[in-house]
Amino acid sequence: MSIKLGLNLEFSRHHNMSFEKAVEEAANIGYQYVEPMVHLGRQLLAEGGFMHSLSLSEDPLRVKDFCSNHGVQISALSSHSQLCKPDMAVDYIRQGIRWAGEMKVPVVNTSEGTKRSWTTEAEDFTLIKYSLKIAADDALRRGVVIGLEPHHQYSASIEGMERLMSLINSPAIGLNYDTGNAFIAGQSDIYSYLEHFSDRLVHLHAKDISYRQSSKERGKVTGTPVGCACGDGVVDWKRVVEICKKVPRDIVFSVECGTLEQAQKSYLHLKSILG
């Protein structure tokens, strides 16, 4: 199956860009896909044009049309809804799934979220199961897959992600693999992790980690907002590509980096590997 190149729009935060400007920059570089971030209600910086996040109160078809007019498609929605906190997670991810269904976007990405200080591990998994069951049923009806991302305390390892995925038996649950988060957590070999879940991979955050960040943070955190340019860090992208070529579906590498310059360098590096 084929690998496509996309850009997670987190890079634009460094430049205080609007969603529209971020999409234009992605298209100018040559990316085929973008991955918008969505939020509930209204956000002052986004409304002022200084942040790329989109309100779920808007019309999703306007967003789809804007992207199409600039020659890019939407690979996934970033709707990180903190599944272990149903009070915020359920409404958030359900609205993200509705958006994705209406736009015919195949994946909505999320994670288990940061745990509350007063819950036990067993309670967390019950709460995650509750949130995930509602979300998976909505996603299945709309032809959307939920991409669980290694990002927090339970998903950082192969064993932890297996436990999360086993909570709900549904074809609407897959893996959004984040190479950078998996590496910085230091709990499982990142290539073994990817190979283990290759048949359930639905999307990939192409995030590289600089050698400096690795030496300071590896094993101390389980996730990081953005990485460095792909090719400038610790990840062996040729190896990642070879694993993903065996995946039984098309996969978008959604580059997650910190600046426009890094987005440009990442595109050139990954393009050279993909040919």
Tell me what you see in this structure.
This protein has 275 residues and is α/β, with parallel strands linked by helices. The protein is 43% helix and 15% strand. Helix 4 runs parallel beside helix 5.
Main traits of this protein?
TIM Barrel; alpha/beta; 11 helices; two-stranded parallel sheet; globular
SSE layout and pairing:
Elements (H helix, E strand, L loop, with lengths): L2 E6 L10 H11 L3 E3 L2 E2 L4 H4 L6 E2 L4 H10 L3 E2 L2 E2 L7 H18 L3 E4 L10 H22 L2 E4 L9 H8 L7 E6 H7 L4 H7 L4 E6 L4 H7 L19 H8 L6 E5 L4 H15 L1
Parallel strand pairs: 1-2, 1-11, 2-5, 3-4, 6-7, 7-8, 8-9, 9-10, 10-11
Radius of gyration: 17 Å
Biggest sheet: strand arrangement: 5-2-1-11-10-9-8-7-6
Major pleated sheet: 9 strands, parallel
Mean pLDDT: 97
Strand content: 15-25%
Distance between the termini: 15 Å
Query: By helix and strand content, what is the structural category?
Result: alpha/beta
Residues in helix, %: 40-55%
User: What is the tally of beta strands?
Assistant: 11
CATH topology (level 3) name: TIM Barrel
Compute the number of helices: 11
CATH class wording: Alpha Beta
Please state the second-level CATH architecture: Alpha-Beta Barrel
Q: Using the alpha-carbon principal axes, give the shape.
A: globular
Q: Which H/E pattern describes the elements?
A: EHEEHEHEEHEHEHEHHEHHEH
Tally the structural domains. 1
User: Stretches where pLDDT falls below 50 for ≥5 residues?
Assistant: none
Q: Name the CATH superfamily assignment.
A: Divalent-metal-dependent TIM barrel enzymes
